[in-house]
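Sample entry (68 residues):
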Amino acid sequence: MIRVEGHPNLYRDEASGAIINCDSVAYNQYVNSLHSRDLQKKEIHNMKNDINEIKSLLRQLLEKNGSV
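Predicted structure, serialized as tokens:
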């Protein structure tokens, strides 16, 4: 592989001509950010479900008390 001038973590594959990033720290940060984003999405989904359940329970209480 040939180092790309001006970029310490980039290399060019001689066979294919592809540019390869060998910065494992940046890659790990990227993967961690994807994992973090997935966790946040799951948490938001769970919170939405909880809110819908609370709304349903409140409606049931109101119906039992004849307030609706």
